[in-house]
Fold this protein.
Amino acid sequence: MLKWLVASLFCITLGVGECQSAPNSQVIERKHYAPFEQEIGFSMVSRVGDQLYLSGIVGAGGDVAAQLQSCYQTIGEILADYGTDTRAIIRETIYTLDMEALKKAQDLRKTFFTHGSYPSATWVQVERLYSEELLIEVEVQVLLAEKGEN
């Protein structure tokens, strides 16, 4: 009971969108970054312990490279909220409508991973994403450092 109360107060103090206890008693922290998340029914970020899960991040722009740049800018901002950077990304999945354009943008993608710390990655070509103007969506899993390790 005390553990749940402390976790709930932690979530309220941080202003986190929602915290719940998972069936195995781990606290799940959910954070929203845009109003449309509630409308659609998802959280941009979910945290369980030292694991951070970012939903598919989409970007703005007229081509894959521009949208990729925008996606990683958003990812960088979210990671900064948690006191980390792209070196903490352990898994990445990219969904694209145009694999050849993504391959051409791979050097741009690599600039976001400092010190050559590339994550496990899967790239998947799909027929369509949520909105018709979207060409790319990036989903990542992050391993957060213990307090004092940053």
